[in-house]
Write a structure and sequence with these properties.
- There is one protein chain.
- This protein is α/β, with parallel strands linked by helices.
- The protein has one domain: Metal-dependent hydrolases (TIM Barrel, Alpha-Beta Barrel).
- It is about 50% helix and about 10% strand.
- It is built from 18 helices and eight strands.
- α13 links the parallel β6 and β7.
- α2 packs across α5, α10 runs parallel beside α11 and α17 packs antiparallel against α18.
- The longest helix is centred in the middle third of the chain and has 23 residues.
- The relative contact order is 0.14.
- The model has no long low-confidence stretch (mean pLDDT about 90).
Length: about 400
């Protein structure tokens, strides 16, 4: 059963994207140009060829999905490339009505001689800010009452590093004789946490959160406890990729060991069959989901990305997003990677509305949750004022399109 929300309505709505990877969201033409400049060999030098060979409609599994990053990450090897990619990403988001983004990436993968983490972060900030200033100078904002564009930067620590992505990998491997292999990843995460807190506090950069990305299986969250404790002590918000390629216990580790404020994906939240260390897996899953609901730990749901990497999800209707909404969890629909998944926030909303027959109230709640549970960099009072502006604009757009809305119930 589909709900007749038009694409025009969904694109006009003010939206957020809380789970958005910079290096997974390049424009194809930009990727080709940057690869040529950086000397990175691509399997094709045409957008059509890359869409056929690399950025496909479907993938065998998560490793196949991640293959494209072997091309996108290395081309972001200069301040100019990082700034350009960030600005273009913000422009693409703005074009479909996204008004708040949290762009995430692993700064350590872009470190080069003469390009440290602070300069990497500053370059991305410049690109995002350029798009912000362009939008705020537009008549739509100055005269039409559209909400301004706001953004934050989320830095990804890595559960593990692989060769070929960055010179940082070589420097990391050079210290393996001093620490056990798994411990060195924790050392890298701690180094990142210190660097980004300093960039926020000393340079005033809008770094709003720490993320943990990379293969879940065999790379537990416990390796990164120290880095997350440091972020927690310094009031840096925390999100964790969990429950994407591993079971509910990965989500439990994220919230119990790493103080996660949000969960990236959380797709296997209800997968009791994947629970390994409980005598009653069904009870474990029920208590975990109830805890997440009660504490308003937001799930950054990426339906298209999950459909591409999880063969068991044959239809959108098979995705647990529908159950998450029914259980009144705090969920926000996100793209994950606009290029790799060939998607937009509007498309994610459209397929969710059609597959799960979201009512106007449910749709409104999902959209507004993205703003309410953002790691907004401007302070709590400014965030409240911004969210109020978003809500008012949402209701205005809904009225213009004949969609009756109601405020969120308790």
């Amino acid at each position: 059963m589909s709900v007749p929300y038009s694409r025009a309505f969904l694109e006009a709505l003010p939206k957020s994207d809380l789970h958005l990877h910079l290096d997974g969201s390049l424009r194809l033409t930009t990727l080709i140009e940057l690869a040529r400049d950086a000397g990175v060999a691509l399997p094709s030098e045409t957008p059509e060829g890359l869409m056929e060979l690399v950025f496909k409609e479907s993938y065998r599994d998560l490793p196949d999905y991640l293959h494209g990053f072997a091309y996108t990450s290395p081309v972001l090897c200069s301040e100019e490339a990082l700034e350009r990619a960030a600005c273009e990403l913000a422009e693409d988001c703005l074009a479909e009505g996204v008004r708040y983004v949290e762009v995430r990436f692993a700064p350590q993968l872009h470190v080069r001689p003469g390009l440290d983490i602070a300069r990497v972060l500053a370059a991305v900030d410049r690109g995002l800010d350029r798009a912000r200033r362009q939008h705020e100078a537009s008549p739509a904002v100055r005269e039409g009452g559209e909400p301004p564009f706001r953004y934050g930067i989320v830095t990804c620590a890595m559960r593990m590093f692989t060769a070929g992505f960055s010179p940082y990998y070589k420097s990391l491997m050079a210290v393996l004789d001093k620490w056990p292999v798994r411990s060195v990843y924790g050392v890298a995460s701690m180094s990142l946490a210190r660097s980004v807190v300093e960039a926020r506090d000393r340079l005033g950069l809008p770094v709003v959160g720490l993320d943990l990305a990379g293969a879940e299986a065999g790379n537990p969250a416990s390796d990164h406890v120290e880095a997350y404790a440091y972020a927690h002590r310094h009031f840096l918000k925390k999100t964790v990729h969990a429950g994407e390629a591993y079971g509910p216990e990965s989500i439990f580790q994220a919230i119990s060991l790493l103080y996660a404020d949000r969960i990236g994906h959380g797709t296997h939240l209800y997968a009791a069959e994947l629970v390994e260390k409980s005598d009653d897996p069904e009870l474990f899953v029920r208590r975990l989901s109830e805890y997440i609901a009660d504490r308003r730990i937001t799930l950054e749901v990426c339906i298209t990305s999950n459909m591409q990497t999880m063969p068991q999800l044959r239809r959108v209707e098979d995705h647990p997003f529908g159950r998450m909404v029914r259980d009144r969890l705090s969920v926000a629909l996100c793209t994950d990677n606009r290029l790799v998944s060939r998607t937009t926030v509007s498309r994610e909303l459209e397929q969710a509305c059609n597959a799960f027959a979201l009512s106007p109230q449910e749709l409104r709640n999902v959209v507004i949750h993205g703003f309410k549970r953002s790691f907004f960099p401007g302070g709590y009072r400014r965030k409240r004022a911004y969210v109020r502006q978003i809500i008012d604009y949402y209701d205005r757009v809904a009225a213009e399109h004949g969609v009756r809305t109601m405020p969120e119930r308790a």
